[in-house]
Amino acid sequence: PGHVQLPPPQNVTLMSKAFDMILTWSPGEGSPPDVTYTVRYESQERMDKWMKVPHCKNIHRTSCNLTCVLPNLFVKVRARVKAVLGRLQSPWVDSQFKEYHLDVELAPPVLNVNVEENLICVNASFPLATCVEIFSWMYDLNLWEAGSADKKQYEGNFRKNTVTIDATALRGNYCLSARSSFQSIDFKHSKFSQPVCVLLNQKG
């Protein structure tokens, strides 16, 4: 009887999380359980040209990672999603515009700490998609004696660089923590990572 439409997806949001640009949504009210979703995106460089996203066609999940399909990380984009079930489709629902370079939200790096002789060697690994490794992601490192509020800071280290700290004069339990940083219009920072603690120069 007439043309039946599926309920459109709700809460369609383009957001950045942990270095990624992700479209999220929730099922429309009264959606059948086996409904799938298809996503497209549009860039301000080519308005009215909605591009397909091959890995987000007829998917069951309610999110789509767009980071590495974006043609230009310095241009605003928006995305849209529709529900599909057999021959039934919902209307498209559009997100707001976002630009990766301006709107990216950072995640803390993971620290790898080695103590050799009297040196602490620290490397930070970042949970990055390959396509965004081109940016000069940096990290700030804090070192402090466990229980003390006095932190020594090592700021602005390039992502791939090792920070080497002379530990000759340090005795006891020391902790390290880092945050990612990135300069777009101004500096952005992630939260600090969970502390990694090491025992230094314990005799006996």
From TrEMBL:
<dbReference type="InterPro" id="IPR050650">
    <property type="entry name" value="Type-II_Cytokine-TF_Rcpt"/>
</dbReference>
<dbReference type="GO" id="GO:0004896">
    <property type="term" value="F:cytokine receptor activity"/>
</dbReference>
<protein>
    <submittedName>
        <fullName>Interferon lambda receptor 1</fullName>
    </submittedName>
</protein>
<dbReference type="GO" id="GO:0005886">
    <property type="term" value="C:plasma membrane"/>
</dbReference>
<keyword id="KW-0675">Receptor</keyword>
<dbReference type="Pfam" id="PF09294">
    <property type="entry name" value="Interfer-bind"/>
</dbReference>
<dbReference type="InterPro" id="IPR015373">
    <property type="entry name" value="Interferon/interleukin_rcp_dom"/>
</dbReference>
<dbReference type="InterPro" id="IPR003961">
    <property type="entry name" value="FN3_dom"/>
</dbReference>
<dbReference type="Pfam" id="PF01108">
    <property type="entry name" value="Tissue_fac"/>
</dbReference>
<dbReference type="InterPro" id="IPR036116">
    <property type="entry name" value="FN3_sf"/>
</dbReference>
<feature type="domain" description="Fibronectin type-III">
    <location>
        <begin position="8"/>
        <end position="103"/>
    </location>
</feature>
<dbReference type="InterPro" id="IPR013783">
    <property type="entry name" value="Ig-like_fold"/>
</dbReference>
